[in-house]
Amino acid sequence: MRSIQERNPVPIALVGLVIVIALGLVAYRADDLPVLGGGTTYTAHFSEAAGLTTGSEVRVAGVKVGKVTDVELDRTRVRVSFRVKDTWIGDSSGAAIAIKTLLGDKYLAISPLGAAAQNPDLTIPLNRTRAPYDVTQAFQDLGATVGRLDTVKIAQSLEAIATTFKDTSPEVRHALDGLSALSRTISSRDDRLKRLLLGSDRLTGTIADQNDQFETLLKDGNLLLEELNLRRQAIHRLLTATRALARELIGFVDDTWIRLEPTLNALDRVTTVLEKNQKHLDKALSVVGPYYRLVGNTLGNGRWTDAYLCGLTPNEYLEPGSYPENGCMPPKVGGRS
């Protein structure tokens, strides 16, 4: 067996290219595979598509559960195929084309009703489906229709009708005169009406072009509201915990008050006695201070005590000049030298 280096690289490259293309197709159509994609495909009849396209979302109670796989014409009706996963669809379920954004994006809303499951081989009939009224498309059609009107000919026709009925009763003549004035007014305002309708058409086109930005803005607003909701929940938990802590502190005070009350009363009596004897305490402290200072000086030289004895021997038994001149006062303040 020859190695890869010895083989012709062209067939190997072709086989590798085919494998890469096949893997790409499998990855692109992964949702349609029975094992990887999964889900069940249903069909529904609508009176009109109303802007619903392949790839539009399928929602149940506002939650995305699948997508539209095909939108095709079935004689005088529109046949919509959609696939959902892990979602129960009943035999009385309804389907409606709903407006997703203010700019006209649509999605398929399913109402899962019924006692039994919907047979995927049976199409949901028209009496259980509903299509929305598209205001944007209606204004665009109105603009196109008005733009094709020949207002000059309409005014001439109304003038001819007024001339024809000029010999009729005054009431009819007045009505036709008013109709003629109306036609002249419409004709004089024709350019303005056209500009207004053209401006409306450009406005709708601009809004449609900015659809992605509006959708991003709405998503960001939704994220902001979710974050505010999380903050509100955190504050709610904080207030709930604070209230629980307050209840625990109240219970603790109630439980310990019986034991704390005698102690606090005794402490109050002690402070009252100390307050009454404050002058005596001040005097005692002023006297005790020097006494303890002298005791400290006496015992502050180590393991012995400094002492000075005077007057044990009468002066007449001492030689002149050997007894202290100042009596029994120490020769040096603070002790012997």
UniProtKB/TrEMBL annotation:
Transmembrane parts of this sequence: 12-30
Which residue ranges does the record assign to the Mammalian cell entry C-terminal domain? Answer: 122-288
In this protein, which residues make up the domain named Mce/MlaD?
Answer: 39-112
Q: One matching Pfam family, short form? A: MlaD
Q: Which residues form the signal peptide?
A: none
Q: Which UniProt keywords apply?
A: Membrane, Transmembrane, Transmembrane helix
Instruction: Tell me a GO cellular component.
Output: extracellular region
NCBIfam families (UniProt xref): Mtu_fam_mce
In Swiss-Prot or TrEMBL terms, this protein is called Phospholipid/cholesterol/gamma-HCH transport system substrate-binding protein
State the organism named in the record: Thermomonospora umbrina
The taxonomy runs:
Bacteria, Bacillati, Actinomycetota, Actinomycetes, Streptosporangiales
